[in-house]
């Protein structure tokens, strides 16, 4: 059974940084394309960044140049380094495969104060 566990969220002032981690199990991680998604209050979940099994990355325009996605296949982990955070980045952040599994982790709350 697939399990995804996000960690590293918190409260940070605008301009600050956070690093999110995702531990994945129950899948062939090294062959999976992975991504980070976020959902802000009252909004739909959106894809923020993704990384292919080969390490090719892609970002939403809103985070390009500020966020960096990476992965460690030996640890079955994917990371999201978030710099120059803005209040608009406030959301619950989730990791999942691309295409996503039906089940999601609990997410990591990121709150950016102005």
**Average pLDDT metric:** 97
CA radius of gyration? 13 Å
The count of β-strands is 10
Quickly count the helices.
Answer: 0
What overall geometry do the principal axes of the alpha carbons give? Answer: globular
Biggest sheet layout? 6 strands, mixed
Following the backbone from N to C, one meets helices and strands in this order, namely EEEEEEEEEE
Helix content: under 10%
How far the N terminus sits from the C terminus, by CA atoms, comes to: 40 Å
| Structural class assignment | mainly beta
Major beta sheet, strand line-up: 2-10-9-4-5-6
> Which runs of at least 5 residues are low in confidence (pLDDT < 50)?
none
- Please state roughly what percent of the residues sit in beta strands, choosing from under 5%, 5-15%, 15-25%, 25-35%, 35-45% or over 45%: over 45%
Description:
It is globular and about 40 Å long. It has strands spanning 3-7, 10-13, 18-25, 34-39, 46-51, 57-59, 67-72, 77-82, 91-97, 108-113. It is built from no helices and 10 strands. The protein has 114 residues and is an all-beta fold.
